[in-house]
Write a structure and sequence with these properties.
Blueprint lengths: L3 E5 L9 H7 L4 E5 L14 E4 L13 H16 L3 E4 L1 H9 L4 E16 L16 E11 L6 E6 L4 E6 L3 E4 L7 H15 L2 H5 L3 H33 L1
Parallel strand pairs: 1-2, 1-3, 3-4, 4-9
Antiparallel strand pairs: 5-6, 5-7, 7-8, 8-9
Length: 239
């Protein structure tokens, strides 16, 4: 069985619940540490691609070579019709790779925000289990316009474009559906060690994010695990 390729684009990326969820679904995984300068892997024996978040944005492509390599991998996956899931930076990467604008959002989002699936999401094989008013974990300052031919899968109250699908096996999701408590704590601690209090630059103290996690993270993880289980099923269907 060909593995699903997990693409790491940040030193703080642990993949959260993704590895265990995919393993439980019977899907093996491989990892490309894109940020560490590993050569872009061939997709010849890969059944799907999940590209995760980054503290860099696509605007840094000229100074961070991994961003252009990730774009080439994204385009290769699309050309091969491999199932592709872009998460946060990965969603922006997907939009950018397809020549849709990526820009600063009007609001920076960090913590748990409401998401509102569109009517089209109800039958979506990855996101059909989300309901209006569900809280999802966000940490981003950029947003994107929809690529040509994309279908909007979910809206946000503050940042509108939250998830989209192209065709029947390519998705971009702005929120961090992979997050678990250890990864969230790792990100918060790493950010505040490097940049100082979260509230100073993101408008929300880390204590508030933790309080939100106490309320919403269990359900968030359950929905996120379902996405990876569903993604494994999509990859199985094209092997």
């Amino acid at each position: 069985m060909d593995p699903i390729l997990l693409v790491r684009c940040d030193d703080a990326e642990t993949f959260g619940i993704a590895p265990s969820a995919l393993e439980n679904a019977g899907a093996p995984t491989a990892i490309w540490d894109a940020l560490d300068g590993e050569p872009r892997p061939s997709l010849d024996h890969i059944s799907g691609v999940v590209l995760f978040g980054s503290s860099y944005n696509v605007e840094h492509a000229d100074e961070q070579p991994f961003i252009k390599d990730a774009r080439e991998l994204t385009l290769d996956a699309i050309e091969r019709r491999l199932p592709y899931l872009g998460i946060c930076f990965g969603a922006q990467m997907l939009a950018w790779s397809l020549d849709a604008p990526v820009m600063k959002a009007a609001d920076r989002e960090v913590g748990f925000e409401v998401v509102r699936p569109t009517d089209a999401a109800a039958s979506d094989p990855l996101l059909g289990h989300y309901a209006g008013g569900d809280r999802v974990f966000q940490w981003h300052m950029d947003t994107f316009e929809l690529p040509r031919g994309a279908t909007l899968m979910a809206r946000g109250d503050r940042v509108v474009n939250q998830a989209f699908r192209i065709g029947d096996r390519t998705w971009g999701v702005q929120w961090h559906l992979e997050i678990d408590r250890p990864e969230m704590e790792h990100w918060l601690d790493a950010f505040e060690r490097a940049d100082g209090p979260l509230e100073t630059s993101w408008g929300k103290p880390a204590s508030n994010v933790r309080a939100e996690a106490d309320r919403f993270l269990v359900d968030h993880e359950t929905r996120g695990r379902a996405v990876f289980t569903r993604f494994a099923a999509v990859t199985d269907g094209v092997r």
